[in-house]
Amino acid sequence: xxxxxxxxxKIPESRVTPESVFLNRRSMMAAVAAGGxxxxxxxxxxxxxxxxxxxxxxxxxxxxxxxxxxxxxxxYNTTFNNYYEFGSSKRIAEAAEKLPIRPWQIxxxxxxxxxxxxxxxxxxxxxxxxxxxxxxxxxEAWSMVVPWTGFPVKRLVEIAKPTSNAKxxxxxxxxxxxVASGQEAGLFTSYPWPxxxxxxxxxxxxxxxxxxxxxxxxxVAKSMGAPLRLHLPWKYGFKSIKGIVRIxxxxxxxxxxxxxxxxxxxxxxxxxxxxxxxPRWSQATEQVLDSGERIPTxxxxxxxxxxxxxxxxxxxxxxxx
Length: 321
Hints:
Layout: H1 25-40, H2 74-77, H3 93-96, E1 105-110, E2 116-119, H4 120-124, E3 130-137, E4 142-152, H5 153-160, E5 168-173, E6 196-200, H6 201-204, E7 210-215, E8 218-219, E9 229-231, E10 244-250, H7 257-261, E11 285-288, E12 294-296, H8 304-307
Parallel strand pairs: 1-10, 4-11
Antiparallel strand pairs: 1-2, 3-4, 4-7, 5-6, 5-10, 7-8, 7-9, 11-12
């Protein structure tokens, strides 16, 4: 007998009264509309220089084919991004095209049996790619749905062979001021480049975290973090680091990029919670990127069934911001 499982993220998507949060709807929709036009005209977010193109589209993982609402149009997603390595504007797609993604090496070090340096294409030969459709919730109170392609973080852990001392994974992005305008000297002088993020080993071994190499049935766009990024669907988007070049297994908790810049506003955990406001705006609702609809935000972005148990006994921690 076939029993249909109703996912925890399937919620009524009725409209609610817009509130004054970080993004203004009119300016935001004008920006994304322009992004759609750019995509239609054949603008950035291409992957002709990616030799892994033949690996896509990958087979869909049947457990993650429905995120409870429609997939966000690729034109919005590839041209509306936070990627401070290329500037503070969300219109960074053209600038991101300057980043060379071959050759691209990833260092795996720290508390591991033996440090490794893997070429991205060599890494791809050691994994099985799959497509997963996930929600994405930005800390700025907007959201999207993306068909990512990648492999589970726990597969990366298997390749790395960490020792018993490893309690955290520390991720590091590239530092290329020669091609990344946001990293140029004098532009963001107070920013602690390179971008750093981290998760616990327990989080890494959960079923949800994905090492992303593709999206929309092809290699992931440079504006979205090519050739390798992380996606954590139950956390705010700044945790899902892009352009990864180093993964270190550590005994000590990493201090992330935004945690360094604003410890009163951005913490290590950053789990989505509508009842915990950012110091400067509410997190109770979110604006769906392509429709402009404002909907209620759900605890853990709707993935509580899979991840809530990770935080049992951690009530004293600032889990949600």
